[in-house]
Amino acid sequence: MTAAVKSIEDQIAGAIEAMTRAERQLASHILRHYPVALLGSVTALAKAAEVSSPTVVRLAQKMGFGGYPGLQQAVRDELEARLVSPLAKHDRWAEAAPETHMLNRFAHAVLGNLQATLAQIDHAQFDAAVALLADPKRRIFATGGRITLPIAQYFTTHMKVIRPGVELLEPVSNAWPPAMLEMQAGDVLLVFDIRRYENNVLQLVEMAAEQGAEMILFTDPWVSPAAAHARYRFSAQIEVPSAWDSTVAIQVLVETLMAAVQSLTWEETAARMKRLEGLYDRARFFRRGK
């Protein structure tokens, strides 16, 4: 089974409880300014975090990178992986492909992605995101990039049945200004963005943040730049033996999210569904068996 990719950011966050006070101070600074904080010199990082240079070196060694140069190189490799093209991904998988049928290899990778993704989801954060989406006082908007927009469309199609006040934002700049007129402080923007991260999505997120919207981000282990504005961020494993990344784990998270919202709003949701079915019947929308 494909090993799950754990970002350096997640590794630092996961180890923070076992750190000394100075190391925690340094780690907190790195997490607030990741990955930029790790691209400068030891001296610059120590000064910015208000710790000593030996503390920087010691943390890098504790994290298993041998020293600060090793940590920096790992960050650079991670950033390069964010931008890898479909052709490069295909070549990498093809070189190490085992002699088994593609159905088995692909399913093996997808199941591994799903298990690893679910294992790292913070349940308290997930529940808090559900509560935001279930709050009738908040309007909900959703958007995505070239590959992930269909997930946002799927989400809005179902959420419009579950509750009112749900809108899809197409990632094209001429559609944003009208949406910004409706978006108010406290509204929720659900964002789907995986590598290679798109400028349009980031620009929309920045505009929504200026409006005071709460952001929920679904991204990958390398983390979309939109994370800087996200209140809640959920990273899913996406690598499979293909030129393209898999969104199966993200889809499972989204369907679980909707099911959880539905359970909190069931009385209103059931009434909406009953009215909708009546409208479908009047319009003879669905085919009936003979």
Provide keyphrases for this structure.
single chain, 290 residues, transcription regulation, 8% strand, SIS_dom, RpiR-like_SIS, MurR/RpiR family transcriptional regulator, alpha/beta, transcription
Explain what this protein looks like in three dimensions:
- This is MurR/RpiR family transcriptional regulator.
- Residues 6-82 form the HTH rpiR-type domain.
- The chain has helices at 8-15, 21-32, 42-49, 53-62, 68-82, 86-95, 102-119, 123-134, 149-162, 176-182, 199-210, 248-264, 266-283, and strands spanning 140-144, 166-168, 188-192, 214-219, 232-235.
- The longest helix is centred in the middle third of the chain and has 18 residues, at 102-119.
- It contains 13 helices and 5 strands.
- Strand 3 (188-192), helix 11 (199-210) and strand 4 form a beta-alpha-beta unit.
- The mean pLDDT is 88.
- Helix 3 packs across helix 4 (53-62).
- It is globular and about 75 Å long.
- The termini are far apart.
- The protein has a 5-stranded parallel beta sheet with strand order 2-1-3-4-5, with helices on both faces.
- With 290 residues, it is an alpha/beta fold.
